[in-house]
Amino acid sequence: MITDALLRVSDAQAVTTTAVSTNTIDLGSARDIGAGENLNVNFNVGTAFAGGTSTEFQVITSASADLSSPTVIGSSGAIATAGLTAGKRVAVRVNPQINSNGQRYVGTRYVVVGTNSAGTVTADFVHGVQDQKSYASGFNVA
C-alpha cells in the first residue's frame, strides 16, 4: 500500500463525536472517482477508542469544501468500540458504480453512537489495501 500526503484526509484526528475529516480532497470539478481501478480508504486507529457504543467509518462526497450535506459512497458499517483498538485497520472500498454525482469534494465522516472519551484515526485514500496475517509458529511447511 502506498500513501500520499495529498490523499490523507485525517491525520491522528480525535474522534469523540460524529464529525467529518479535517481535510478534504478537491477534485477540481465534479467527477467520477469510482471508475477504473479499485480505490479504498484505509482507516488506521492510532489511540484506542473508549466510551462510546460504536463508530462507523464513511467515505463521502459533497458539493461543499466543508463536506456538508454529504453523499455516502462507502461505509464500514457500525464497529463496536471494544473492537477499535490501537493498530486496528479498516478498509472501505469506494463504490465503483457512483457515476458522477455532481460533487467536487471527497473526505470521510465518523458516525459515533454515544460519546467517545478517546480515539484517534488516520485515513488515507489508497489504491491497494495491505493485509498482514500472523500465524502460530511450530509447524513445518512442505
Q: Strands, helices and their partners?
A:
Elements: E1 8-14, E2 19-20, E3 25-26, E4 40-45, E5 54-62, E6 71-80, E7 89-93, E8 105-113, E9 120-126
Notes on the structure:
Helix content is 0%, strand content 40%. With 142 residues, the protein is an all-beta fold. It has one domain: Jelly Rolls, CATH 2.60.120.
- The first-to-last residue Cα distance is 30 Å
Low-pLDDT residue intervals, each spanning 5 or more residues: none
Mean pLDDT: 87
Number of helices: 0
Give the oligomer, counting copies of the same chain as homo and different chains as hetero.
single chain
In short:
The chain is an all-beta fold. The chain is 0% helix and 40% strand.
List keywords for this structure.
142 residues, mainly beta, Jelly Rolls, four-stranded antiparallel β-sheet, 9 strands
